[in-house]
Design goal:
About 40% of the residues lie in helices and about 10% in strands. It has about 140 residues and is an alpha+beta fold. It folds into 2 domains: about 35 residues, no CATH class; about 90 residues, no CATH class. The two termini are about 30 Å apart.
């Protein structure tokens, strides 16, 4: 809540000193927290791939239906890993449509678009058909 210097000086009886202090406080106050600012980023410049759910390492291997971290040994189901990465993509790019091709590129390690399509079809609502289809949350 922003407070004007007039409100501060009206509520205090210290005269011009309080008014100057109030004006300085109003100048210094910011409506936006510096912690809510997000740095600029570009999709093409980001490193793509699945990270380990435990240690965030990009050093993973796909074995059968498991993602195995080569760094810490953590194992995760491939479907769960794809869904986790869809969530990360949505957090970074909330205005972008979720498509099989986009998630295939984003995950980078999953070599089958069919696997990604299967996971998206099971967990999201498909809108449209063919190359123009995209996925939305079931509740949207």
């Amino acid at each position: 809540m922003a407070i004007s210097s007039r409100q501060l000086s009206r509520n205090s009886s210290g005269g011009s000193k309080n008014k100057k202090t109030a004006e300085m406080l109003v100048k210094l106050s910011k409506d936006e927290s510096p912690f809510t600012r997000i740095p600029d980023y570009d999709y093409t410049k980001l490193k793509k791939g699945i990270t380990c759910a435990s240690c965030n390492s990009f050093l993973i291997s796909v074995k059968d239906r498991q993602i195995v971290c080569d760094h810490c040994g953590h194992e995760e189901d491939t479907d769960a890993s794809i869904l986790r990465n869809v969530g990360q993509f949505q957090a970074l790019f909330p205005n972008e449509k979720i498509t099989t091709n986009v998630i295939y590129d984003w995950c980078n390690e999953i070599k089958s678009k069919k696997t990604i399509s299967r996971v998206l079809n099971r967990n999201f609502l498909r809108i449209g058909h063919g190359k123009y289809s995209y996925y939305a949350e079931c509740g949207d």
